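To whoever is on call:

I kicked off a structure prediction for a single chain this morning and the downstream step that reads the tokens threw a length-mismatch warning. I double-checked the sequence; it's 43 residues and nothing unusual in it as far as I can see. Pasting both halves so you can look.
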Amino acid sequence: MPHPERNVRHFHHPDWKRLPKREWGDGFELFQNAVSRAGQLVS
């Protein structure tokens, strides 16, 4: 099961200094998809 708290910001990752700089981490995409889907269900 995916964990939305995984890496919302790039510096939440344990190896963030070694990885290429990004504005958002992996978990943020999951959060965006959840918000988008919830919006579709409500409207």
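Update from on-call: the warning came from a stale cache, not from the record. Cleared it. Sanity check on the structure: The mean pLDDT is 81.
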